[in-house]
Amino acid sequence: MASTQESGGKRQIGGELIIPALALGFTLYYISTVINSPWSAQLNAFLVGSVLILLVLVFFGLALREVLLGRATLGVSGLLAPYDILARRLGFMAISLGYLVVIHWLGFTLTTFVFLAASMLLLGGGRRPVLCVSAAAVMATVAFGVFVLLFEKRFPKGPIEQLVQALT
Amino acid sequence: MEINAAFFVDLFLHSLSLWWVIVPSIFLGLIVGAIPGFSAANTIIVLLPFTLIMEVEVGLVFMVALYCASRMGAGIPAILVNIPGTAGAAATPLDGYPMVKKGQGQRALAISFTASTIGGLLTTAVALASMPILARVGFYMHSVEMVVVMLFGISLIATIAAKDTLKGLIAGFLGLMIGSIGTDHVYATPRGTFGILELYDGIPLIPALVGLFAISEAFLVIEGESILSRHGRERLKTGSWLQTIDGIKITLKKWWHVAWTSLIGLVIGVTPGAGAAIAAFVAYQQSRALSKTPELYGTGHVEGLIAPESANNGVTAGTLIPLLVLGIPGGATAAIMLVVMQYQGVNVGPRLFAEQPLLGYGIFMAMFVTYLLMALTILPMSRYMSRVTLVSTTYMSPLIIGFTLIGSFVPREYMFDMYLAFAFGILGYIARKTGYHVAAILIGVILGPLMEGYMLVALQKSDGDFLTLFSSPLGNVLWLALALSLVLPPFMKHRQRRRKGVFAEGEG
Question: Membrane-spanning regions, if any (chain B) (predicted)?
Answer without folding.
Answer: 18-38, 45-67, 108-131, 143-162, 168-187, 199-222, 259-284, 320-341, 361-381, 388-408, 414-431, 438-457, 469-491
